[in-house]
Amino acid sequence: MSKKIVFLGTGGTIAGTAASAVDNVGYTAAQLNVDQLLVCIPALPDTLGECTAVFEQVMQIDSKDMGWPQWLALVRRVCHYLTMPDVAAIVVTHGTDTLEETAFFLSQVLPRDGLACKSVVLTCAMRPASSLAADGPQNLLDAVVVARSQAAHGVLVVCAGGVHAAHAVQKVHPYRLNAFDSGDAAALAYVEEGAVRWVQRCPQSDRNTAFTPELLERWSQGPWPRVEIVMNYVGATGATVRALCVEPSDSSPAVQGIVVAGTGNGTLHHDLEAALWQAQRQGVKVVRATRCPQGCVVPGAGSDAALPHAQGLSAVKARIALMLDIMATMATSLKTARHHPP
Ligand code: SIN
């Protein structure tokens, strides 16, 4: 049976265009559909080998505007294709700005079975498709090479020849082509001249086991839990947290979780810390991450018990994990309430 590689387009700079070929900043993201990107790559048929390409435009957005409805649409299409026996892998084109969040989200909600021997490879570009030296075509080709690799499984990110795990990858530069890094975890592999050089095994799934695709469908009408991020810095106070915890007077949802990006090993200004403790006493879930770009909060500090640490996640990923935990807990308590009426 001939295998398929599915290309799902979501927009981003990889699909962006500018009026001038030398303008790599003043462009409009999300202008070309994924099939238009693919036809511009003469080497694609060779790289696909015996696989055939299937493509679908799931959305067309600048990834700064990514939200729950878009994630839901993407998960549905990825799940749809993952279950097909003749689909070998899925390549998603995505903007770089929130790519690490989408990759982590997918890694937490896609069915473990579906990813046991298949990969979902997200790729992107730092320069628009109209650029004199666009990086998108090479990144797309590299993504196909990774998608076809027998060693690839799970949710992966490919950019500038680096292959990264969803859990570790972060955008670390606003301009250079090699904009992604996996910090201490390091890249999983490098794509060189059409071959993947693996330096680590793809990690086993660390997905949120409480979070089933059925649960995601139950949340399809939204609104998803509101989880906000605050930061510690010189002169920080608890004012933002206290404001967040005031019951909204309009129909906007109340805050259910706060991730704090602490200084260093998750340390917090005493006023901010007091406000977070108060929020926690009010029932808001609080998680402590670090604002350091590398490493993670090392457990053992006195405040661990009071404000749990982020389990090695960056603040933006800890926010997603907390949101999914709240969704799973709320679904369980609803079920329990239904089974045991008061
Ligand atoms: C985006 O994230 O959609 C725009 C920026 C980029 O892709 O580099």
DSSP strand tally: 13
Strand order of the largest sheet: 2-1-3-4-5-6-9-10
CATH architecture of the largest domain: 3-Layer(aba) Sandwich
Given as residue ranges, the uncertain stretches (5+ residues, pLDDT < 50) are none
Mean pLDDT over the residues: 94
For the record, the count of structural domains works out to 2
If helices are DSSP runs of H or I spanning 4 or more residues, what is the number of helices?
Answer: 9
What's the main sheet like? 8 strands, mixed
Percent of sequence in beta strands: 15-25%
Order of helices and strands: EHHEHEHEHEEEEEEHEHEHEH
Nearest-angstrom radius of gyration? 21 Å
CATH C-level name of the largest domain: Alpha Beta
Name of the CATH superfamily of the largest domain: L-asparaginase, N-terminal domain
Each distinct ligand: succinic acid
Distance between the termini: 56 Å
Your description of this structure?
Helix 4 (99-109) packs parallel to helix 9 (315-339). The protein has nine helices and 13 strands. The chain is globular. The strands form three sheets. An eight-stranded mixed sheet has the order 2-1-3-4-5-6-9-10, with helices on both faces. Strands 11-12-13 form a three-stranded parallel sheet, with helices on both faces. Strands 7-8 form a two-stranded antiparallel sheet. The relative contact order is 0.11. The chain is of the alpha/beta class and 342 residues long. It folds into two domains: 4-198, L-asparaginase, N-terminal domain (Rossmann fold, 3-Layer(aba) Sandwich); 213-339, Rossmann fold, CATH 3.40.50. The chain starts with a strand and ends with a helix. 29% of the residues lie in helices and 21% in strands.
